[in-house]
């Protein structure tokens, strides 16, 4: 059984540390900073960092990779088409890799960046999705099209409902404020907004989420819901006939929100 803990970094990033107590090996996802990982290793003598999983090339996800590689010799996985420091194995999607003795499926999720990938561990129901799917939101479109991001999110939404969603930023509260503006009549958004507000007041992390929770309260996965469509139409003064256009409308709205 793998244990997954958040190592906070920068303002609102989480580096996810996966630990296998039997082998005393660990892996880290998106180490934008080496320091929190090195501090953890120092506090846990006998543990070895064996793998570094990178979802995309942005600095807050790769800034610590070179130092960690140099100090630990960990194997570095990352998108084949992006510039990833010290990458050992380039991934494009649809591969399966072995990490801490478990199979992780690689899923191509272009949109935030073009080479963005997610890592999914089926038996334990773990999804590491970087800046693609956020709790109650999604990443900005820096490189991809709304169509690409919409398809990527649909692909993640099709994973089992109990899948735990480990995204990389603590954006949940501001995302829920937007979700509430889009769907003021959704009781699940309302309830989650209150819960996460209370959590954040005491500094509690709002992650991981689950696919079920996201399908119930994330407007970017709800682009076919009548209230979401109506909100996008009212906001833009246009009629929308398909979910991709609703998605593009919501993403542009959130950028200005
Ligand atoms: Zn990013
Ligand atoms: Fe990021």
**Shape estimate:** globular
Strand-residue proportion: 25-35%
The ligands bound in this entry are:
zinc ion, fe (iii) ion
CATH superfamily, called what? Ribonuclease Z/Hydroxyacylglutathione hydrolase-like
Class inferred from helices and paired strands? alpha/beta
| Strands ordered across the widest β-sheet | 1-2-3-4-5-6
CATH architecture: 4-Layer Sandwich
Which fold name is given in CATH as the topology?
Metallo-beta-lactamase, Chain A
Low-confidence stretches: none
Major beta sheet summary: 6 strands, mixed
Q: How many DSSP helices?
A: 9
Mean of pLDDT: 98
- Strand elements, count: 14
Q: How far do the termini sit from each other?
A: 41 Å
Q: In which range does the helix fraction lie? A: 25-40%
Please provide the ordered H/E string of secondary-structure elements: EEEHEHHEEEEEEEEHEHHEHHH
Keywords, please?
257 residues, alpha/beta, Metallo-beta-lactamase, Chain A, 6-stranded mixed beta sheet, binds fe (iii) ion
């Amino acid at each position: 059984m793998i244990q997954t803990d958040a190592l906070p970094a920068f303002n609102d990033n989480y580096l996810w540390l996966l630990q296998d107590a039997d082998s005393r090996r660990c892996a880290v996802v998106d180490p934008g900073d080496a320091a929190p990982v090195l501090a953890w290793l120092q506090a846990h003598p006998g543990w070895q960092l064996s793998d570094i999983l990178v979802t995309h090339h942005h600095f807050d996800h790769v800034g610590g990779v070179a130092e960690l590689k140099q100090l630990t010799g960990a194997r570095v996985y990352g998108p084949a088409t992006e510039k990833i420091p010290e990458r050992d194995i380039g991934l494009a999607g649809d591969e399966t890799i072995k990490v801490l003795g478990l199979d992780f499926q690689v899923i191509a999720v272009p949109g935030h960046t073009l080479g963005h990938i997610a890592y999914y561990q089926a038996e334990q129901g773990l999804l590491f999705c970087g800046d693609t799917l956020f709790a109650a939101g999604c990443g900005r479109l820096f490189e991809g099209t709304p169509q690409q991001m919409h398809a990527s999110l649909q692909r993640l939404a099709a994973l089992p409902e109990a899948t735990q969603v480990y995204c990389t930023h603590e954006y949940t509260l501001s995302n829920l404020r937007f979700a509430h503006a889009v769907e003021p009549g959704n009781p699940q958004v309302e309830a989650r907004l209150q819960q996460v507000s209370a959590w954040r007041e005491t500094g509690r992390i709002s992650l991981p989420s689950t696919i079920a929770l996201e399908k119930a309260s994330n407007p970017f996965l709800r682009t076919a819901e009548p209230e979401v469509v109506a909100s996008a139409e009212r906001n833009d003064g246009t009629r929308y006939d398909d979910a991709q256009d609703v998605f593009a409308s919501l993403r542009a709205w959130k950028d200005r929100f």
